[in-house]
Amino acid sequence: MESQWNHKIFTIKEKDVEPLALEIFRFQYSNNPVYHEYVNALHINARAVKSVVQIPFLPIRFFKSHTVQTTVFDPAAIFESSGTTGSSNSSHRVKDITIYKDSFTIAFQLFYGPISDWCIIGLLPSYLERGNSSLVYMVNELIQMSGHAESGFYLHEYDKLYSVLTSLEKKKQKTLLIGVTFALLDLAEKYSLPLAHTIIMETGGMKGRREEMIRREVHDILQQSFNVPAVHSEYGMTELLSQAYSKGNGIFHCPPWMKVLVRDEEDPLSVRMPPANQQMAFATGAINVIDLANIYSCSFIATDDAGKLYNDGSFEVLGRMDNSDLRGCSLLAL
Hints:
2 domains, seven-stranded mixed β-sheet, 31% helix
């Protein structure tokens, strides 16, 4: 059954997204106790759900308080979020790690081409300093698949990293420098280096290390220090097994098996759609994510992010929601 799901998910065509999403909804409603109870608590008749916009999205906070698991299994991996001091962490129990590998490998190649063309450098100190990070797992796998001698993680070795980047630039080697925001800013403050063959990709994250800044401010600093035309971004999270990518201006695009919707902040069950047939028309609201790769947890996640959804399916992240969007969580106490 696992190989059947993998094939369906990662070879999907646009016209098949909604039928497969509905099939997965029924599968998860029947085999995920937490999701089953949540749907019932909303007084939604699962058999009456006939379109994607009718599917209930599980509040992301449930990954902190419940075991969100579809079917019974011993997890091959458990990914955990970083959290803040005194807070509980999200936990994502992964039944089949090959689904995650397929998801990030195929998505990376869709956006950036063969992994073997790249030198992959991870600047992720806050993630490396703790275990069970899905981001570290992904970057480590990309490092191994790149096969490049200089690919690897750099913890706080900014002098060494500067030397390596200088050498790679001289060789005109395509390089991806993927880093947590505060570490990239630390590097930018210490060194100014024109990067003609390197893509800088920020994954977000200050975590109290620096004063919070809006994405545009971060990107302006990085563009100026490294003389790059744009800063790329990755949108992923512990509770998902897929990532969206931005190649600049904070506009994200999803792989075919991942979709973003936006919901009304006051009515979590109401989905807002951008006006059709208007160039760059958009709708704003809280971000819902359909991640079909989440076949053994929950594929329908109501995040705590606010966003802007364009009518071509691309989106922007505008920031975090406030506590007004908590009512869905109170519907279920197990």
